[in-house]
Fold these 2 entries.
Entry 1:
Amino acid sequence: MSVLGIGVDIVETARIAHSLGRFGERFLQRVFTAGEIEYCQSMKFPARHFAARFAAKEAVSKAFGTGIGRAMGWRDIDVHRKESGEPFVVLEGGAKQLAAERGVQKVWISLSHTDHHAAATIVLES
């Protein structure tokens, strides 16, 4: 096994809260999957959880070295939770294709958030 890429991102929770307030459903549908929306909206402070998932998507794109755009879209990266609470990533569309091309076998994820910031770290492993 070897590391194919590492990505880290930090997001201001207020920035995501602002986008939620200003663009509402349009922002949600553009960036997040149905499962992510359902989970985050069920939480006491949804913006914190949306911010963590936003950071995760950015971190995945950085680990691949592509950014969000041509190679993969926002919704190609889906952050789920196990019953234990541990997050995991499911890749779809362009992200899944890129992972297959590069021999990615495992995507490791760590999320963290406070009142003001959310952070994500991603490791791609072959």
Entry 2:
Amino acid sequence: MYNKEIEKLIGPNKLTVVEAMRSIDKNACGILFIVDENEKLIGCVTDGDIRRYLLAGGKLEDSIEKAVNKKIKKAKTLDSARRLFDQRNYIAIPIVDSKGVIIDVYLGEDTYVKPKAPLNIPVVINAGGRGTRLDPFTRVLPKPLIPVGELPIIEHIMKQFQGYACEDFHVIVNYKRELIKAYFHENENRYQIKWYDEEQPLGTGGGLSLLKGKMNETFFFTNCDNLLTANYNSMLKFHRENHNVITMICAYRNLSIPYGVVDMGVNGTIEGMREKPMLSFLTNTGIYIVEPEVLDDIEDGVAIGFPDILEGQRKKGKNVAVFPVSENDWMDMGQFSELEKMRKKLYGD
């Protein structure tokens, strides 16, 4: 019998892919060890393993065994687990007995922090919207300055990118823009910001026309109400390896239907019934990786949503793709119900 902490890191091979994803989200360690009916270790799955499986055409309802990495490092003692862990940036090392059953898991020292790879690419933030989902707060403050804990939304976003050595910020502003500029003018943290003033609302994508001729490298583009804690390096690597002009970062959302669901056929026949099913789908986080050539196709002064810009590139035959992340890696700060969740995630209770 496992203790509660180890139990969170272990899942049976009868799990589906989506069930394994939920288990990884709950344990917050980024890994799940899969065992057979005799509790013998089969292998492990991480967010990256599941992402690769899904990108290769796998389905959420498939058995997790299809996505398992069986080439797993394991140890027989705590000392050997420590030595293995220190050799590379492993997430965790399982400790097994003579039968291959997990008896402990080594997660590293509490003070150990894996360094983030420096990316050094520009970040464009669309901060021009009115933030209607946060009304009436946004009647007083623009959405980017709505505080979440000790910092406003926009500064949380910028600090997340700074963690990857992305220091070159380009901020598109419109609604209450002088307040936003004044905040950063007085800010003790000196950010490297270039401002772009929308004279009229241009949607979630039209403001990028203001950057034509001023951007000559791959850049991140984000709305000002999303925070992503996934691995930005993996996203950029995926974008470049697939020669995409746009990569849309999407998060899996799991929605539990609190009713029995009936599938109806011709003449009211019942074709199937599902009790309180879990629906899983990909949703756009509003965060993208973009090539500068995309800017040339955006019409000046015309309001357009960025998903429409992406669709235009797709119709031209350009490479556009989705990079999926866990729902636990995405926080939407654009609605009241999420602000408190985000504060707790960032600062604790």
